[in-house]
Amino acid sequence: MEVPQRLEAHDLACRRGLRLVFEGLSFALSAGEALLLTGPNGAGKTSLLRLMAGFLPAETGEVRLLPADEEKPFGEHVHYLGHANGVKASLTVSENLQFWIDYYGAPPLSDETIQAHLSRFGLAEIADLPAGMLSAGQKRKLALCRLLAAPRPVWLLDEPSVSLDAASTKILAAIIKDHLKAGGMAVVATHLPLSLRFAQNLDLSAREAA
Ligand SMILES: Nc1ncnc2c1ncn2[C@@H]1O[C@H](COP(=O)(O)OP(=O)(O)OP(=O)(O)O)[C@@H](O)[C@H]1O
């Protein structure tokens, strides 16, 4: 598979129930760029991210990666991190990470590498603790660790810093920066400032459809 160089969204519209949440939405991102998604509650940020991840059908339009991958659908190039952490309470912290590596079909990692990813967020010391015992912020950090453990070129992040303290928010920004430096792309919806240089800001408040 060639590394994607560009993400293009063309003429997207999304319907939730009877309401057209947005329409006529087009944007493009190049490798190494991030897009900041803003807008008030209900503007459609989560809807756009879920549509891009393939969890919601588009009323019109399409999202594609270039060069196109004939073998894998768009969704398999994407990490979607939504409001739910997807943490399995009865598995330990490291077993959760191992579960996601298998689930995403990512190359297996040694125990040392898994520990290294966990330590990025200070979770290595609690690697053997059942994830159900973690605090809200620790669960969020564990969810974010899967971005590191299963590399994918496009990150779709919905309020990724929720529950994180100031130090962990800085680590999150550093992780996104590293991803962009390595040629990845990110679309980030956030109400809280992240110390990150975004190539573009898509404000959905100005986009609401009738
Ligand atoms: N399953 C659903 N059925 C009908 N309408 C829905 C559904 N899910 C969301 N909506 C509506 O779609 C609109 C957009 O919601 P969405 O969650 O995308 O907004 P958001 O910009 O992410 O908001 P927030 O900042 O509060 O997270 C809202 O008006 C919401 O009520």
Automatic annotation (TrEMBL):
GO molecular function: ATP binding; ATP hydrolysis activity; transmembrane transporter activity
EC number(s) recorded for this UniProt protein: 3.6.3.41
Species lineage: Bacteria, Pseudomonadati, Pseudomonadota, Alphaproteobacteria, Hyphomicrobiales
KW Membrane (keyword) present: yes
NCBIfam families referenced in this protein's UniProt entry, alphabetically: ccmA (TIGR01189), PRK13538.1 (NF010061)
UniProt-listed InterPro entries: AAA+_ATPase, ABC_transporter-like_ATP-bd, ABC_transporter-like_CS, ABC_transptr_haem_export_CcmA, P-loop_NTPase
Record-annotated ABC transporter domain positions: 7-209
Keywords noted in UniProt: ATP-binding, Cytochrome c-type biogenesis, Hydrolase, Membrane, Nucleotide-binding, Translocase, Transport
Keyword Glycoprotein set for record: no
Top enzyme class: hydrolase
Family annotation (SUPFAM superfamilies): P-loop containing nucleoside triphosphate hydrolases
GO biological process: cytochrome complex assembly
Family recorded in the similarity comment: Belongs to the ABC transporter superfamily.
Protein name: Cytochrome c biogenesis ATP-binding export protein CcmA
PROSITE patterns on file: ABC_TRANSPORTER_1, ABC_TRANSPORTER_2
Domain of life: Bacteria
